[in-house]
């Protein structure tokens, strides 16, 4: 019996963004790069070899893959578990957690004001 290759997460399957290590510019394939006339939908690997960072001029080898911006983490078959939280991206989960903490803080602050 042959072993199956390891499954990839949804973030790994998505077209990854690439960040310039020199200046922090993020190349997002779905947006392309208007400054250098790269059309939207062009993956990073398909960029010309002489393409440079539009902000600082760093070569392509200064870029690292950072994954998709709003891709949910985890595997596709697990997205329906966890009251829908598995479908949230990391940023949305952070907003939910810290937003809830802020509301709780305001609640306790209002109790303090009543006393």
Summary, kept brief:
By secondary structure, the protein is α+β, with helices and mostly antiparallel strands.
Structural class: alpha+beta
* pLDDT averaged residue by residue: 81
Order of helices and strands: HEEEH
What is the CATH T-level topology of the largest domain?
Answer: Rubrerythrin, domain 2
- Please give the order of strands in the largest beta sheet: 2-1-3
Shape: flat
> What does the largest sheet look like?
3 strands, antiparallel
Count of individual beta strands? 3
List the uncertain runs: none
As a percent range, the share of helical residues equals 25-40%
Beta-strand share of residues: 5-15%
CATH class membership of the largest domain: Mainly Beta
Q: How many domains, as an integer?
A: 2
Query: How far apart are the first and last residues' alpha carbons, in Å?
Result: 70 Å
Please give the count of helices.
2
**Oligomer designation:** single chain
Compute the CA-based radius of gyration: 20 Å
Identify the CATH architecture of the largest domain: Single Sheet
């Amino acid at each position: 019996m042959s072993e199956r290759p390891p499954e990839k997460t949804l973030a790994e399957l998505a077209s990854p963004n690439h960040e310039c290590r020199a200046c922090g510019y993020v190349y997002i394939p779905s947006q392309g790069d208007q400054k250098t006339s790269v059309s939207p939908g062009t993956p990073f690997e398909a960029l010309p070899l002489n393409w440079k960072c539009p902000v600082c001029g760093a070569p392509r080898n200064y870029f690292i893959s950072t994954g998709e911006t709003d891709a949910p983490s985890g595997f596709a078959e697990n997205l329906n578990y966890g009251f829908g939280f598995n479908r949230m991206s990391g940023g949305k989960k952070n907003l939910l957690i810290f937003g809830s903490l802020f509301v709780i803080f305001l609640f306790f602050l209002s109790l303090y004001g009543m006393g």
